[in-house]
């Protein structure tokens, strides 16, 4: 009897030992993988927050030697980065407003209404979102040149919105799909028009989806580089994505300023993208053609 | 609850939405009125330029003069198909695209499997995992320009550990290394997205399937092979196509880091189109290249759509 108890106890402790080994191996793998993935981001931080005299050594120290915060002030006084950010902000806000207005209409038609041509419309959106932007750069550039609307912030926002609108509509359609049809039926029975139902019922129920659309549209324009570089060649309208790409590390711009610039530009998109990732991912993938 | 919705949306079955409200089913003009501004807008800024581009590829485009356009027929295409540089661009594009698909999806799958198991700090770890995806491309380029700096770049520490490496390599000047870095950086930026999608698919696999397989005596590898892989198979297929589309579109990272160099070894078709138009000012030839790229991406997009249709029919 006693021996039996001893046996099971030994077996149990063997099992916990194995479990412990297993889970510590698992944690180790998770740690190593996470470290490799995050290292470039870590390196940006390290290079931002210490004076570059430490890091301009080979091999550079892997841990920060001294905290330093003057680089932000120097960055803003030595480069027109405030102006770049302001331009980016203006382009992004215009793109966002345009996309929000149009995607509400498109998503409502795609999700809550039935009409012939609905599938075709969805297909049309799906294809436009999949084409490489550079393919229509040249015709658009020629068009803009002929119309003489190059170097204008609103005309760039017009292009950015055209590129991101299909994804915004798909995101919002996914959200509108979750509004129970019974609620809409009831509202129509109560004498509400379809647009009234959209305004009073669908939209209030879809606030997070609208926020996601706002985030996606805003930061698409904020991050966009290709069109911004071609369409806004004049320095006055240069947005931050293009401005930052003109900075030359070490040679012209001290490393801590260079990396600080990247950091300043990334903070907002990172925060908002991470908050909205679920919606963004569904918009990019679930653009399924449905009957 | 969140993950439920997520998985549903991604698995292509958007829940219990069977039919729209009865009263919304009448035929009327409202949907067309709603959609018209969008169609006009996308038509003007996307479709019209495509048509214009196709037309332009058959003409000689002179931006400076206002002379009438000159019809040149198939000249640009004849030039393209007989141009060895064009075929090199195609090879580079294929190589880059397929390598990014393989690397980004493999890393995405492995991290998804790793993070599928609940553990302490998982939310934190997942947030960190999504970082590369959330950082805009231009700062990504800045980070890697600095990391790969031949003088002070931190990656040289690793390189120096290899036997025989006594000098910091010129990372972006050696063709093979430049291509490898373009693939790695693009994959680093892209994989969190695939990881998230695969994770949602993994979590949608019913636990009963695993239990049943375990009762039948399946070991871990068999569980993976006979339950996990079939469970996420269609999602993986879809992601291959999506990854093809995304990596085919990749412009900013390559353009800002190598510009297509050294000597064209990282020049994918999108970079080539840009360089032809805005470095050599050869607009008509660039438009012809653009049409070629358009045909390729249209084919891939159609494959994606067909797969989506199949999936929705299967799950419906």
Query: Measured on Cα atoms, how large is the radius of gyration of chain B?
Result: 24 Å
What characterizes the major β-sheet of chain B? Answer: 2 strands, antiparallel
Q: Which fold name corresponds to the CATH topology of the largest domain in chain B? A: MetI-like fold
How many individual helices of chain B? 13
CATH class of the largest domain in chain B: Mainly Alpha
- What is the total tally of β strands of chain A? 0
Q: CATH superfamily membership of the largest domain in chain A, which one?
A: MetI-like
Helix-strand pattern of chain A, N to C? HHHHHHHHHHHHH
| Residues in helix, % of chain B | over 70%
Query: What is the mean pLDDT of chain A?
Result: 85
| Helix count from the secondary structure assignment of chain A | 13
> What CATH architecture of the largest domain in chain A do you see?
Orthogonal Bundle
Judged by helices, strands and strand pairing, the structural class of chain A is: mainly alpha
InterPro entries (chain A): BP-dep_ABC_trans_perm, MetI-like, MetI-like_sf
Keywords (chain A): Cell membrane, Membrane, Sugar transport, Transmembrane, Transmembrane helix, Transport
Main location (chain A): membrane
Membrane topology (chain A): Multi-pass membrane protein
List the helices and strands and how they pair.
The complex is a heterodimer of chains A (about 290) and B (about 325).
Chain A: H1 2-48, H2 52-55, H3 70-78, H4 81-111, H5 118-130, H6 137-147, H7 153-176, H8 181-189, H9 194-205, H10 207-223, H11 226-231, H12 240-246, H13 255-285
Chain B: H1 2-10, H2 30-56, E1 59-60, E2 70-71, H3 75-81, H4 84-116, H5 122-134, H6 137-147, H7 155-161, H8 175-203, H9 207-215, H10 220-249, H11 252-257, H12 269-278, H13 283-315
Antiparallel strand pairs in B: 1-2
Helix pairs in contact in B: 1-8, 2-13, 3-13, 4-8, 4-10, 5-8, 8-10, 10-13, 12-13
């Amino acid at each position: 009897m006693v021996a039996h108890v001893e046996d099971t106890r030994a077996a149990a402790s063997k099992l916990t030992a194995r479990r412990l080994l297993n889970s510590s191996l698992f944690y180790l793998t998770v740690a190593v993988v996470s470290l490799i993935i995050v290292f470039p981001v870590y390196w940006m931080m390290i290079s931002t927050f210490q004076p570059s005299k430490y890091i301009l050594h080979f091999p550079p120290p892997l841990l920060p030697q001294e905290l330093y915060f003057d680089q932000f002030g120097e960055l803003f006084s030595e480069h027109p980065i405030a102006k770049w950010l302001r331009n980016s902000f203006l382009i992004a806000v215009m793109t966002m407003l345009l996309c929000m207005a149009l995607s509400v209409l498109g998503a409502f038609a795609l999700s809550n209404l039935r009409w012939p041509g609905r599938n075709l419309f969805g297909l049309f959106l799906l294809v436009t979102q999949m084409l490489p932007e550079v393919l229509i750069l040249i015709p658009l550039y020629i068009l803009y040149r002929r119309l003489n609307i190059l170097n204008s912030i609103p005309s760039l926002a017009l292009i950015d919105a055209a590129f991101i609108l299909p994804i915004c509509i798909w995101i919002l359609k996914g959200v509108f799909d979750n509004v129970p049809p019974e609620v809409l039926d009831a509202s129509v029975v109560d004498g509400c028009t379809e647009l009234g139902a959209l305004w009073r019922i669908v939209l209030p129920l879809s606030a997070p989806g609208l926020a996601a659309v706002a985030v996606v549209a805003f930061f698409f324009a904020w991050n966009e580089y290709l069109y911004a570089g071609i369409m806004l060649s004049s320095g006055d309208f240069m947005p931050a994505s293009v401005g930052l790409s003109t900075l030359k590390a070490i040679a012209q711009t001290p490393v801590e300023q260079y990396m600080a610039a990247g950091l300043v530009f990334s903070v907002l998109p990172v925060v908002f993208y991470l908050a909205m990732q679920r919606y963004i991912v569904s918009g990019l993938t679930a653009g399924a053609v449905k009957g | 609850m969140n993950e439920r919705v997520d998985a549903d949306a991604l698995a292509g079955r958007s829940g219990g939405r069977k039919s729209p409200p009865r009263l919304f089913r009448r035929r009327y003009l409202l949907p067309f009125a709603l959609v018209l501004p969008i169609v006009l807008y996308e038509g003007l800024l996307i479709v019209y330029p495509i048509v214009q581009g196709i037309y332009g590829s058959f003409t000689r485009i002179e931006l400076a003069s206002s002379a009438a356009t000159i019809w040149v027929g198939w000249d640009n295409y004849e030039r393209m198909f007989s141009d060895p540089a064009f075929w090199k661009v195609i090879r580079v594009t294929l190589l880059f695209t397929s390598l990014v698909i393989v690397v980004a999806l493999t890393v995405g799958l492995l991290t998804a499997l790793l993070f599928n198991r609940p553990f302490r700090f998982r939310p934190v770890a997942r947030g960190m995992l999504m970082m590369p995806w959330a950082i805009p491309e231009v700062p990504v380029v800045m980070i890697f320009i600095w990391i790969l700096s031949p003088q002070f770049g931190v990656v040289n520490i690793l390189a120096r550990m290899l036997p025989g490496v006594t000098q910091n390599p010129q990372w972006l000047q050696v063709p093979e290394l430049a291509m490898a870095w373009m693939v790695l950086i693009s994959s680093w930026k892209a994989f969190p997205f695939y990881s998230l999608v695969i994770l949602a698919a993994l979590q949608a696999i019913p636990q009963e399937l695993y239990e049943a397989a375990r009762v039948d005596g399946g070991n871990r590898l068999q569980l993976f092979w006979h339950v996990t892989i079939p469970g996420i198979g269609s999602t993986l297929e879809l992601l291959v196509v999506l990854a093809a589309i995304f990596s085919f579109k990749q412009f900013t990272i390559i353009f800002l880091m190598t510009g297509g160099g050294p000597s064209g070894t990282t020049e994918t078709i999108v970079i080539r189109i840009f360089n032809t138009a805005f470095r050599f000012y050869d607009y008509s030839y660039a438009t012809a290249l653009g049409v070629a790229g358009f045909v390729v991406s249209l084919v891939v997009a159609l494959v994606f759509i067909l797969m989506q249709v199949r999936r929705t029919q299967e799950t419906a």
